[in-house]
Structure formats: structure tokens, C-alpha cells
Amino acid sequence: MIEKINLNNILFLDIETVPEEENFNSLDAEMQSLWDLKTQYQRKDDFTPEEFYDRAGIWAEFGKIICISVGYFTIKGDIRNFRVTSFFGDEKKILKDFNNLLNNHFNQPQHLLCGHNAKEFDIPFIARRMIINQIAIPDKLNLFGKKPWEIPHLDTLELWKFGDYKHFTSLKLLTKILGVPSPKGDIDGSQVAHVFYVEKDIDRIVTYCEKDTIAVAQIFLRLRREDLLIEEEIIHV
């Protein structure tokens, strides 16, 4: 089935998130208490709420988006390119720019969004942060009232599961076993908050996010048994 999808109609994406505040003590007392309650199951007795706060970026209620990278194919005849770009900086601007991209360029019925674990993480996170920032949710993210087969989202993790809902395979593992060049550079997801808040190196994070977006596209090509992208086909814009 995925072989029949026109690659030009897919927007590949990845996001990077961090805790909304640099440290736990920057939260007001009520948010500290709510964080305590939200994470008590995950923490058990192993961590205090403050010790666990470095993981706040995985919850939309306590984190924020610092980068959204997107990529899309342009295929004309036998010439194939994959164009990658990123929105980063102020979260509200990131979300507005991403919203404009969807509304102006990926708003047709045939257009699809694709990420790795995007249905469980990236897409709900973006939609929730849009609500928090009072930004209208674009049609491609608004799932209310849609039947499962009407949802315009692809997920390389879901495609790899083949219905095995208890199974999780990381992007790094999937690229390894499918022979895709590793997307990971000199940082991993657990280090993003440190690079953002302490090193203040957003460019490093953007590079990391774009590599993941390219990796998702490469996995999708592998699932279709198509040739992987070579460096000359990837254009950073």
C-alpha cells in the first residue's frame, strides 16, 4: 500500500523539546506540585520531583518545542531531491511558521505527515502546544471527528510494528538494521536540554533534528524497497 503513495505528498518531520523552565525551582509552587503528581508513577521512590525534572520535555504540559525540522521530496522525471528546513527559536513563532507551512503548502486531501513515533509523540505534542499558545490547529493536526482511515498521518514505528502494539523500536535501531546511515551526531535526546539551556547551542540541536528527519525519510524509502538518498540529493534550505 505505501508503495502507491506519491512521495511528493509526504511531509516528513521531527521535533526537539525541552523542559519549559531551565530548572525545577523556576516553576511556581502549584506547577511543582502538579509535576510531582504527574510523574509519581514514573519516579516511584527512585527520584524526587526535582531530580526527575530534566525529563519534563517529554510532556507537553511541562515542556516546550525548540525545533521542528521538516523534509519533503521533489521528484521530477529521474531527478530526486529531498529538501530539509527547520523552524527554531521562540516556540510561538515555531508553531506559527509550521502552521503556515501546513495551511499553505500541505493542506490538500492527498497530503500526509510522517514521523517516527509521531502519532504518539510529535503530532500530539505540537497540537497541545498550539492550544497552550492559542494558535489555531491546522486541519492536518485536528483529528476530532475523523475516522481512523481519515487521519492523514504515517508513522514509521507503526509501519514497522505490523500490528504488534506492544513493540517499540527506536529510530537508531531501525536505521541500523535497515542499513540506513546513522542519523545521530554528537548528541542524543537526553542531552538536548543541556545543549539548549547550558551550552546555548541551538544550531547543534537543529542539525540533530534535521538528521532525524532525513532518517525517517530513508526508513520510508527502505520500507518501499527504494534506493536510499545520497548526500547530493539532500538540500538544506
From TrEMBL:
Q: Which protein is depicted?
A: 3'-5' exonuclease
Q: Which domain of life is it from?
A: Bacteria
State the UniProt keywords alphabetically. Exonuclease, Hydrolase, Nuclease
Which organism does this record belong to?
Answer: Flavobacterium gyeonganense
Root EC class: hydrolase
Which ranges carry the Predicted 3'-5' exonuclease PolB-like domain? 62-224
Presence of keyword Nuclease? yes
InterPro entries from the UniProt entry: 3'-5'_exonuclease_PolB-like, RNaseH-like_sf, RNaseH_sf
Q: Does the keyword Hydrolase apply?
A: yes
Q: What is its EC number?
A: 3.1.-.-
A Pfam family per the record = DNA_pol_B_exo2
Instruction: Kindly list the GO molecular function terms attached to this UniProt entry.
Output: exonuclease activity
